[in-house]
Amino acid sequence: MEKQTRTLVIATKNEGKLREFKAVLEPLGFSAVPVGDIDAAIAEPKETGMTFAENAALKATYYMDKTGYSCLADDSGLIVDVLHGRPGVYSARYAGPQHNDADNNAKLLAELSGVPAEKRTARYACVLVLARPGRELLTAEGTCEGIILNTPAGDNGFGYDPYFYIPEKGKTMAEMSLAEKNGLSHRGKALRKLTDLLR
Q: How does it assemble (predicted)?
């Protein structure tokens, strides 16, 4: 295996994201390795970008520089129309620095209290950036449209997935298998665009 091209360091500690990346990248011959397996002592960079693209590029180049490997980073989140785009780039830490999925979802539902279903339109957005030593950045984006429910359904997802309902499928993200989710999710769409570029 050629170090610089076949091993991709994945800039995440999120097991759910890592499973999604592995499911798409490994059949293409890429070894998707979490950054902690390369060097657990690397500190996380501060995500100071104002957009998903800025944060993804920041993480990808940071971990590439630290490890010497090609690095794939994503920045993704939930955009709720009636909340003027919140939580957006703050999706993972919406409830504050000591965030967790339960607290983030509780804050989201509190802000949507009293908002009727037809106004709970939202989308997941993802920007992927691949940083490779000595080469230009590769960028790919994807979105997935849905509606935010009042009550959770399913336990296969993470983050806001149990509340993110996709009308044409009649189920939430968390009610889908990994293969089904990768087929229509924001991250799955971005990954397919990126793998087309890699080919």
A: Homodimer.
